[in-house]
């Protein structure tokens, strides 16, 4: 019976000690602020206070420790130039033959020394429909678990990348964006941005460093949107436009039974083009594209003269036929 009583007493003492030294909510200390985000090399200060009678309150820290103080209910941990990445400040209090403490959550950050972008697997122009990797190098940043690399094509956000490993000290890291080159990418600028998302306690907006833009050069063959074009003319100026985008620029060749000499411009203009077919070929080192133009004569002065000439021809035929008829008639009368 007596052993049972002592066992119960010991259990009660253990539970009481656990309740006094256990959770932060039961420790009579208040930190202000409760969490800090500090730029590497900057100053920091945090108050630790209590509202109970105590036998000493203080800060334990590898930088800026505060000795135990029995006379005050508020003490401040302060560092003017914080440079220790793994620092873990702790405020403690002694009371009622026990001690409890509160750890200060602290994030020390450093923006990247540099952020740069390049093509990871080649230099020089890209070819349309080929796959390439763009590489963003982020140098000396911390903490990397709070880093987001954002990829932009022009002003359009293309991709976000975050990092799952937990490292407190500065590191170098790389983000890769895979693209399929398209003719619409020729001359477009890509850039990457390294942003540290440090929560509500961190600086707002989040600190970010952006790379210089990388302008792409994409080579692609000529390609006409329309491969056939009908041109109607009434005899005036006719313009056949074979121009198409290409990189390197395309050279042009015209073919037609109505052309007496070779033409090499992208536009064929003339007021004397005969009706018929005209074929243009645009070509560069990557390929070629052919377009056919069909010229038709309609309306206008050409039609007028055609009708007039046809009418004159018919009139001549009628006159000749009538003359022959009269001659035959006279001949018959003379015989009788």
Sum up the structure in keywords.
336 residues, five-stranded antiparallel beta sheet, four-stranded antiparallel beta sheet, 2 helices, rod-shaped, disordered N terminus, disordered C terminus, Ig_sub, transmembrane, signal, membrane
Describe the structure in your own words.
One of its GO terms (molecular function) is integrin binding. The protein is built from two helices and 25 strands. By secondary structure, the chain is α+β, with helices and mostly antiparallel strands. The strands form eight sheets. Strands 13, 14, 16, 17 and 18 form a five-stranded antiparallel beta sheet that branches. The chain is rod-shaped, with a radius of gyration of 45 Å.
The percentage of residues in β strands lies in 35-45%
Distance from N terminus to C terminus (CA atoms, Å) equals 175 Å
**Number of helical elements:** 2
Radius of gyration: 45 Å
Poorly predicted residue ranges: 1-24, 302-311, 327-336
Q: What characteristic shape results from the CA principal axes?
A: rod-shaped
Mean pLDDT: 84
> Could you say which structural class the secondary elements and strand pairing correspond to?
alpha+beta
Number of strands: 25
- H/E element sequence: HEEEEEEEEEEEEEEEEEEEEEEEEEH
Helix content: 10-25%
Biggest beta sheet summary: 5 strands, antiparallel
Keywords: Membrane, Signal, Transmembrane, Transmembrane helix
Domain Ig-like: 112-210, 221-296
Protein name: Ig-like domain-containing protein
GO molecular function, one term: integrin binding
């Amino acid at each position: 019976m007596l052993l049972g009583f002592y066992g119960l007493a010991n259990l009660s003492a253990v539970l009481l000690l656990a309740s006094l030294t256990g959770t932060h909510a039961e420790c009579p200390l208040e930190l202000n602020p409760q969490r800090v985000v500090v730029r590497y090399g900057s100053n920091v200060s945090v108050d630790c206070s209590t509202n109970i009678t105590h036998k000493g309150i203080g800060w334990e820290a590898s930088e800026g420790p505060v000795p135990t103080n029995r006379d005050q209910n508020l003490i401040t941990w302060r560092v003017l130039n914080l440079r220790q990445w793994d620092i873990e400040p702790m405020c403690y209090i002694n009371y009622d033959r026990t001690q409890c403490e509160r750890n200060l959550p602290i994030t020390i950050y450093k923006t990247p020394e540099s952020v740069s972008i390049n093509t990871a697997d080649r230099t020089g122009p890209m070819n349309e429909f080929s796959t390439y990797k763009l590489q963003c190098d982020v140098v000396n940043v911390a903490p990397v678990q709070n880093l987001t690399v954002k990829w932009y094509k022009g002003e359009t956000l293309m991709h976000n990348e975050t990092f799952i490993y937990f490292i407190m000290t500065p590191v170098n890291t790389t983000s890769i964006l895979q693209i399929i080159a398209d003719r619409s990418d020729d001359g477009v600028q890509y850039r990457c941005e390294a942003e540290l998302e440090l929560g509500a306690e961190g600086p707002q907006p989040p600190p970010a460093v952006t790379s210089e833009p990388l302008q792409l050069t994409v080579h692609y063959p000529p390609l006409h949107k329309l491969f056939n074009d009908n041109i109607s003319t009434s005899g005036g100026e006719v313009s056949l436009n074979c121009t198409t985008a290409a990189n390197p620029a395309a050279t042009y060749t015209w073919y037609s039974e109505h052309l007496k000499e070779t033409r090499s411009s992208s536009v064929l203009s003339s007021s004397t083009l005969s009706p018929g077919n005209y074929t243009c070929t645009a070509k560069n080192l990557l390929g070629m594209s052919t377009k056919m133009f069909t010229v038709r004569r309609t309306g206008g002065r050409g039609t007028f003269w055609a009708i007039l000439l046809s009418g004159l021809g018919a009139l001549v035929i009628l006159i000749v036929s009538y003359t022959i008829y009269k001659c035959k008639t006279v001949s018959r009368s003379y015989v009788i």
